[in-house]
Amino acid sequence: MRVLVADDDVHVRSALRLVLEQEVDMQVVGESAAADGLLAEVVRSSAGVVLLDWELPGLRDDGLVARLRAAEPKLRLVAMSGRPEQRSEALCAGMDAFVCKGDAPETLLGTLRALQ
What's the number of domains the chain is made of? Predict the structure, then answer.
């Protein structure tokens, strides 16, 4: 699974990379710290999944989720947030799945594998 990690916190991106790269069936193919340029990074990296901070600056302001869907119809989008109450909003906005940043790594990995 080719995963792109998009989060404005470098520590979160680094932690996610460490977790994902321990898995033989997962590869981090890119990172993004902002919504600006994310679409280009998805295309460049040939990511199959984007692990996307639901609070990423600019994410919801410019219709990025819809543009990602239009450009890459097979792309899977997983929202992550430290606020579990955002689950419904993210799923209604078209995300394929939602994970809390405080969830155990096994929960994240299970969510990602369920998308295959």
Answer: 1
**pTM value > 0.85:** yes
Unique residue bearing structure tokens 């981090």? 28
CA 85 to each of CA 15, 32, 54, 99, 116: distance values in angstroms, whole numbers, following the listed order: 23, 24, 12, 11, 26
Range of the domain at 14: 2-114
- Please say whether the beta carbons of 98 and 87 come within 8 A: yes
* CB-CB neighbours of 88 under 10 Å: 10
The CATH number assigned to the domain holding 35 equals: 3.40.50.2300
- Residue-level pLDDT, tens digit, the chain, 116 residues: 999 999 999 999 999 999 999 999 999 999 999 888 899 999 999 999 999 999 998 887 668 888 898 989 999 999 999 999 999 999 998 899 999 999 999 999 999 999 98
3-state secondary structure of 47: coil
